[in-house]
Amino acid sequence: MSVSKAILDQLPDSDISLLASKWVERRYRAHQLVIEHGDSNCDVFFLLEGRARVTLFTEAGKEVAYQEMGQGDIFGELAGIDGKVRSASIVALEPALVARLPQGLFRDFVRSNPGFAWILLEHLSDRLRRMTNRVYEFSTLMVRQRLICELLRRAEGKWGADGAALLDPAPTHVELAAYISTHREAVSREMSALAKRRMIEKRGGSLVLLERGTLELLAGKETDEE
Predict the structure, then answer these.
(1) Range 95-103 average pLDDT
(2) What Cα–Cα distance (Å) separates residue 87 from each residue in 18, 79, 80, 84, 169?
(3) Which 8-state DSSP code applies to residue 168?
(4) Which of 83, 85, 53 is nearest to 68 (CA)?
(5) CB 74 within 8 A of CB 110
(6) Edge to edge, what strands does the sheet with 200-203 contain?
(7) What region does 198 belong to: left with phi over 0, alpha with psi -120 to 50, or beta?
(8) Strand-pair partners of 68
């Protein structure tokens, strides 16, 4: 599976300069809310520095995470296109610099720039495919399979010739639980089982995935109960 390239990384300098002359930049603290689920504002955002997470919260306060974003990524584009309320919340994972582009200016830029419009289509296509894969996982896979699938996603583009991938920093068990719709205890149990089988290894603050082929096989064939 290929790693999707950030929107801003695909634009020429002239387009970025034009956007920068129209957007407003703001800094956010770690864990600060950038966009709230259900908000009616339809502006579009670009992540210039830092990392952020697309997430939802249940009535009981449980976090259901969908995607992590990095420098150059776009978010809020769905509301910018269809004018409907926000479908998810965006939370800064670390100190972040965010650019906010008014909806009208975003739409004008899309209409007048076929190159950007095509990049946006590819971005939305990638997002839809990932969403489809996750619906399948939630509907058909057990917790260990979902966990391995999430670890493999995080390892995209990081595999070495030795068949190992380094995740640095290592995702927390709470974070992984939010991404695969389970609880921390289940993640801790399954991570311990994978470590005992030498499929993963903790090294300081990092996590190393070992034996890519075996992990991919386990993701498709394990049937342990949650």
Answers:
(1) 98
(2) 28, 8, 12, 8, 28
(3) S
(4) 53
(5) no
(6) 165-167, 206-209, 200-203
(7) left
(8) 53
Across 20-29, 55-64, 180-189, the highest mean pLDDT is recorded for 20-29
Token couple for 26: 């703001």
Element housing 92 (H / E): strand 89-92
Residue 166, helix vs strand vs coil: strand
Confidence of residue 181 (pLDDT cuts 50, 70, 90): confident
pLDDT for the residue 41: 95
Q: Position 20: which residue type? A: A
- 3-class secondary structure, 133: helix
CB burial of 140-160 (b: ≥16 within 10 Å; e: otherwise) equals ebebbbbbbbbbbbbbeeeee
Residue (of 215, 105, 82) closest to 152 by Cα position: 215
- Are the C-beta atoms of 151 and 200 separated by less than 8 Å? yes
Task: Render pLDDT for 198-212 as a digit per residue (tens, 0 to 9).
Answer: 999 999 999 999 988
**For residues 4 and 187, which has the higher predicted lDDT (pLDDT)?**
187
pLDDT of residue 225: 40
Q: How far apart are CA 70 and CA 57, in angstroms?
A: 21
Residue 55 has pLDDT above 50, yes or no: yes
pLDDT of residue 4: 64
Residue 179, token pair as written in the block: 């991404």
Please tell me the distance from the alpha carbon of residue 205 to that of residue 49, in angstroms, as a whole number: 22
